[in-house]
Design goal:
The protein is α/β, with parallel strands linked by helices. It contains 13 helices and eight strands.
């Protein structure tokens, strides 16, 4: 065994990455896992997401060629400090969530120069139901962010990770990522919390929920983002989050004005809602293939020979 992949954090994201790797074309490379919660580690092992559970964090990453951090964002500083001395030169560390400006700073502060760090963010497809870890990222986008000086090989390793999971690699600047994530993940979580709190504090919430349908369910689905992660991201990226909140507040004020306008505002309000619904439908359309941010993926023949760690995966595809 020339090396292994280590996944630190075996919740929904970490388990999904493990399952995706086990379903992929890897052959002869084990996936090791670590989680602070023993039950999460046991569940990941039972599901087949990992080959081995390592309760000691340094032992989990020792000898690993790729380390994927999928633990809650608040644990990232301690994890990086703990694993730094156990990483082998030439290995690559990547993460899966959080404000990238902060995680890149932490990686630069705690990881040795001999280790490459590439910030990552796997995102399920827009209209995909979040029901479990099975094939969670297939058809989704895998955001890849790195700072200047990141080794080319580290980029390739994380790009191949994304491809093996069935996701489309998407290269972004740290500013783009943090702004886009703020509006697509943090802001929906905040708006969802505001709506739930409004209903909960109304005094008749139990009766209200009896008539709550799909619209309410869709608008309050943001619990898929762990609350502590959302809070950490909101605070660390507060300038961007506040700008998006201000923009949404302006639009809510416009809608309030139309609702308050009486019958004469009914048609303008309907037009505004219709434009929004059409725009939402457009969000589900396939991405422009000419989008320069999308990685150029290898064809089938090339893909059979293109693996992570130099010669580590040279043995090729798993036989069907």
């Amino acid at each position: 065994m020339a090396g292994h992949i280590a996944i630190v954090g075996l919740g929904r994201t970490g388990a999904a990455i493990g399952l995706g790797l086990k379903r992929s074309t890897l052959h002869g490379v084990e996936v090791w896992g670590h989680d602070k919660e023993p039950e999460a580690a046991k569940a990941a092992r039972r599901s087949g997401a990992i080959d081995k559970v390592k309760h000691n964090l340094p032992a989990a990453v020792s000898g690993a060629k790729l380390v994927v951090l999928a633990a809650p964002a608040s644990q990232t500083p301690d994890i990086l400090r703990t694993i730094a001395s156990s990483l082998v030169p030439g290995s690559v560390v990547t993460d899966t969530r959080g404000a990238k400006a902060s995680v890149l700073r932490l990686a630069k502060e705690h990881l040795p120069d001999s280790v490459g760090f590439v910030a990552g963010h796997p995102v399920p497809a827009l209209n995909k139901l979040i029901s479990g870890a099975e094939r969670l990222f297939e058809g989704g986008t895998y955001c890849i962010v790195a700072s200047n000086g990141t080794p080319e090989g580290a980029f390739k390793d994380v790009t191949n990770l994304a491809t093996l999971l069935g996701a489309i690699p998407y290269f972004m600047s740290v500013e783009e990522h943090d702004s886009y994530r703020a509006v697509t993940e943090v802001l929906p979580t905040l708006l969802s919390a505001a709506l739930i709190e409004t209903v909960r504090e109304s005094g008749g919430w139990q009766e209200i929920l009896k008539v709550a349908g799909p619209n309410f369910g869709a608008a309050t689905l943001s619990g898929a983002v762990p609350p502590m992660d959302a809070a950490t991201d909101a605070i660390e990226n507060r300038e961007v989050v506040l700008r998006w909140l201000d923009d949404v507040s302006e639009r809510l004020a416009e809608l309030r004005s139309l609702v308050d306008g009486g019958e004469q505002a009914e048609e303008p309000l309907a037009d505004k809602l219709a434009r929004a619904f059409v725009a939402r439908e457009d969000l589900g359309k396939p991405a422009d293939p000419d989008d320069s941010g999308l990685a150029a993926l290898p064809d089938a023949a090339e893909g059979a020979q293109q693996f992570f760690f130099g010669n580590l995966f040279r043995w090729g595809r798993r036989k069907n």
